[in-house]
Amino acid sequence: MRQALAGFFSQVSNFSKFFAVLVAAAVLVVGVAGQASANPRYAAYVIDARTGQVLFSRNADARRYPASLTKMMTIYLVLEAIESGRINKNSRIPISAKAAAEPPTKIGLKAGSTITVENAILTMVTRSANDISTAVGEFIGGSEASFARMMTAKARQLGMNSTQFRNAHGLPNPEQYTTARDMAILGIALREHFPQHYSYFSTRSFTLGKQRIGNHNRMLGRIEGVDGIKTGYIRASGFNLVSSVQNNGRSIVAVVMGGQSAASRDDHMAALIREHLPRASRGGGGSNLVASRQPTPGTRAVASAGTTALPTRNIPMPAFRPTAEPQVAQAQVPAEVDMQVTAYVQQTNPVRASAPMPSAPVPSAPVPTPTAAVADDRFASGEGSNVDPVMTASTAAASSGWVVQIASSPSQSDAFAALVRTGKEASGVLGSANAFIEEFNNKGTTYYRARFGGFASKDQAWNACNALKRQKIDCYAVGS
After folding, report:
1. Cα–Cα distance measured from residue 110 to residue 100, given in angstroms and rounded to the nearest whole number
2. Are residues 406 and 337 part of one domain?
3. Do 404 and 256 belong to one domain?
4. pTM
């Protein structure tokens, strides 16, 4: 009897410990999610890659800046060109002066040099090289602008209805945006459309010349089953990450956007994977894959450097079918769209050609200055140098305290241009002031205030405004 009781209490004790661990794990997940949700740039999405079942969704359709997640689409188009036979892994990509001048992170190849297609892919996956991304865009699209139109048209074909590209690397551009849901679609498409090439995304490091280049993605090796895909950072977006996980017959793709640090983003991603991977199905797949191939009209994009036209054959389109997502509408598969028509519409009406603005707030535009090159994935070496001195309204403190207003316009692009111009002409006056655009409504008309904030006192703001006026820049100081 005594032994039986002892065994019983031992089981109870073990169960209590097990229950305590479960509770602690649940508290961790809820706590991390709660902290992340308080961040206005935060968005997250987890989908079962076998069935399309949405396992987790927060702000999944709110517009966000992709940062270097952009390179996922750049690589998609490279792999598509390889599959078509128009280029191969050993094709040489020329480095233009424009590409060589791109800001970090970069490989640093000189203008006039070349890099193989395979090494270009590896540099984008690991170091997130902006210079190589531009060179790739010029090589495949004839120009980076043309390549960006190809990227946007391809996004439409993949069902990424709320994404628009303006460059191949993800450095700040107010017209380049995406959503967490769309990045999940792209992650699944890369896996399903190019299984023979997907291993590039799990590369831990590789050698280029005398350089040993490591991967910025710290999730590789941290969680069993993580096999890629891509990290991203600019100040306007925060820290972004798309992760693919395949383990024990289950498969998910997870997205976290707007992390306040690389570490907190990675911790949140790890919590999401641990929480939701066990809920994913071991069934599905085959003809029911989320990113199944279907024929769609092709395009005749012309590559640079005298190469021939890129594929005219039909290219795949995933039938993306998320199911049973609580309180979030299902993504709709668009009607077949000719890429050339889409590209033309994007070119002639760049902002409104894509899907309607979601109801969630749109992050304010990042404001480039002569030194506003944004280091992507600065956590690769600690937090890295502060090479993006201009903050935006996407940060909580952007519009607090005293501000200096330099323009107000019904045109957002005009307000943005005023910020850029003033930032260039009066960088010495404004110092580390935070540039941002603020919307307000006056008698039914939306206006955009171009402002610099972050002044500690009324005197500082007034002194800055007086200095601007001496440079013949109109302004006024106001508390906000």
Report:
1. 6
2. no
3. no
4. 0.60
> Alpha-carbon distance 201 to 1, whole Å?
60
Closest CA to 178 of 140, 215, 147, 151: 151
pLDDT digits (tens, 9 = 90+) for 64-79: 999 999 999 999 999 9
Same structural domain, 156 and 303: yes
Residue 162 shares a structural domain with residue 216 = yes
Beta strands in 209-261 (DSSP E): 211-214, 226-234, 238-247, 250-259
Q: What is the CATH number of the domain that holds 204?
A: 3.40.710.10
Active site members: 68, 71, 128
Distance, CA of 404 to chain centre? 31
> pLDDT tens digit string along 338-393?
232 233 223 323 322 223 323 333 333 333 332 333 334 433 333 332 223 223 23
Q: Is 424 annotated as a binding residue?
A: no
| C-alpha–C-alpha distance, residues 235 and 67, integer Å | 9
How many domains in the chain? Answer: 2
Joined together, the tokens standing for residue 365 give 């535009």
**Which of 160, 133, 161 minimizes the C-alpha distance to 148?**
133
Structure tokens at 230: 């891509």
Judge if 178 and 129 occupy the same domain: yes
